[in-house]
Specification:
The complex is a heterodimer of chains A (about 325) and B (about 170). Chain A is α+β, with helices and mostly antiparallel strands and about 325 residues long. Chain A has helices spanning about 45-60, 165-170, 180-195, 205-225, 225-235, 250-265, 270-295, 305-324, and strands at about 15-20, 20-25, 35-40, 70-75, 80-85, 100-105, 110-115, 130-135, 140-145. In chain B, the strands form 2 sheets. In chain B, strands 3-4-5 form a 3-stranded antiparallel β-sheet. Chain B has a single domain, classed as Sufe protein. Chain: A, CATH 3.90.1010. The longest helix of chain B has about 40 residues, at about 135-170. Classes of the chains: A alpha+beta (about 325), B alpha+beta (about 170). Chain B: Pfam families: NifU_N (PF01592).
Chain lengths: ~325, ~170
């Protein structure tokens, strides 16, 4: 997952839209030679691409100037089209010549990013305004609501849109730091009208949609509620699949975990177990705080070892709970 | 993660459909009897002194499932044969069974032969379902890590010995 790139001095994003093919290009290609190819998983939007792009560029060339480009090959079956508006100025590009704005259509399925990239300066936090033009399946009324749960005109429940990520679903900002009370409130608000029990008098089709929507909202809520699964989810959105990471050899971490597991195994009294559990909870909290900084800085690859460490502590806590 | 899990179930269900004997009970996936055997009676559980110059220690982990595995070998320095092996694994039944099998297989074998043990051999022996293949992978990595550790230790001891020789001669 390495980007290849070289320098370019200006950034000017333009949109060239063709049927199912959209290209986001930077202006000056004269000094850009090498193509960049990167595959992303579904549910991806430009903010994420931009963020991971920024991270890799930071690693690749800290002194590079500015410019970013990417071509999006999109394909999806549904007729629903989500529009994402990204203003490059807002994305924090430190370039005076980066005033242009670009937009592209989001789509599901696999998104392949092929682009030519020069550098980006340092910090890169993205803000995305997303606008959706979706058509109600029942009355064909157009809606700009995102996520689109219920048609405002005919009140028909809409099908689940897999392209909407969990943050969008609960309408919270995509960032690691989350107010858990806000999450809970949003979750409960949504369940008030999405819960399948409420649609028992509606059509079969709507019942299915309500069940899907409601299940997805539950999944989103519990994923974002937990600091570990939230981090794992954000990594996945950034194209890093932590579930498939193979064997690790970090001796310091593994030795620590081995010793902790032995301590748990040998512990006979309840007080001792409570003490180890507390220690592990503190360690998880430390990881969580470190993750806040890492995600804030946009260097998501640095989150990987922290997430791994956190997963081990979680496992130990589970083991203690099982034993208690 | 859920999707990953569901995929695993689907795969397990499809392999059940092909009739993997003893691995499936009433549509629910259960461990193969060999896994259960190694889990209930793990072979060679224990520890060697990791500072012993003839001991190699392989410490590996799979963070995705919270597994941690330690495999140690005792090597005859003259022949290069693994004369003893032991392990300690915290993880699921398949990870414990895989390391148990690995420790059994490498005992009495020359290091060069032990290093060629493939995870697929272990997985096949234990009839591990596809979702559990990474457990046998962990065991393979542990063998490799233990042998690497032993060789690194010997190399280090060798250079230290050659460095200390002239000192001994002058003394």
């Amino acid at each position: 997952m390495r980007w290849l790139g070289s320098k370019s001095s200006t950034l000017r994003c333009a949109l060239q839209s063709h049927l199912r093919f959209y290209e986001l290009v930077s202006g000056d290609f004269s000094s850009v030679n090498e193509p960049i190819v990167r595959s992303f998983t579904p549910n991806l939007d430009f903010g994420v691409v931009a963020q991971s792009l920024a991270h890799d560029l930071q690693e690749f060339d800290r002194s590079a100037a500015t410019a970013t480009a990417g071509s999006f090959f999109l394909g999806r079956e549904s007729d629903r089209t989500a529009k994402c508006v990204v203003t490059s100025g807002r994305m924090g590009l430190e370039s005076s010549s980066s005033g242009g704005s670009c937009s592209h259509d989001l789509a599901g399925g696999r998104v392949r990013v092929l682009g030519r990239v020069a550098g980006l300066k340092r910090r890169f936090s993205s803000t995305i305004a997303k606008r959706v033009e979706a058509k109600c399946w029942s009355c064909e009324e157009l809606s700009t609501a995102n996520p689109f749960f219920i048609c405002s005109s005919c009140k028909a429940i809409q099908p689940l849109d897999q392209d909407v990520d969990f943050f969008q679903l609960l309408s919270v900002d995509r960032r690691y730091v989350q107010d858990l009370k806000v999450l809970e409130r949003k979750y409960k608000q949504l369940q008030k009208f999405l819960h399948p029990d409420l649609s028992s008098r509606k059509s079969k089709r709507e019942q299915v949609y309500a069940a899907d929507q409601s299940a997805q909202v539950i999944k989103a809520y519990y994923t974002l509620l937990d600091p570990l699964s939230r981090a794992q989810y954000m990594l996945r959105l950034g194209g890093v699949n932590i579930d498939e990471e193979g064997t690790i050899h970090d001796p310091a971490l593994l030795m620590e975990i081995m010793e902790l597991r032995e301590e748990v195994e040998e512990a006979t009294d309840a007080d001792k177990l409570v003490k180890i559990k507390e220690q592990n909870k503190n360690k998880m909290l430390q990881c969580e705080n470190a993750l806040k900084e890492v995600f804030q800085s946009g260097r998501i690859m640095h989150a990987v070892p922290l997430v791994q460490r956190m997963a081990y502590y979680r496992k130990i806590i589970e083991e203690i709970t099982r034993k208690q | 993660m859920l999707a990953h899990f569901a995929k695993g179930i689907a795969r397990a269900a499809s392999s059940a459909g092909q009739g993997s004997r003893g691995a499936v009970v009433f549509g629910q996936r259960a461990y193969h009897e060999k896994v259960v055997d190694h889990y209930d009676n793990p072979r060679n559980v224990g520890s060697f002194d990791k500072n012993d110059p003839n001991v190699g220690t392989g410490l590996v982990g799979a963070p995705a499932c919270g597994d941690v595995m330690k495999l140690q070998i005792k090597v005859d320095e003259k022949t290069g044969d693994i004369i003893d092996a032991c392990f300690k694994t915290f993880g699921c039944g398949s990870a414990i069974a895989s390391s148990s099998v690995a420790s059994e297989w490498i005992k009495g074998r020359p290091m060069d032969e032990a290093v060629s043990i493939k995870n697929s051999d272990i997985a096949k022996h234990l009839s591990l379902p596809p979702v559990k293949l990474h457990c046998s992978m962990l065991a393979e990595d542990a063998i490799k890590a233990a042998i690497k550790d032993y060789k690194a230790k010997r190399a280090k001891a060798g250079t230290e010995a050659s460095q200390s020789e002239p000192v001994a001669a002058t003394a």
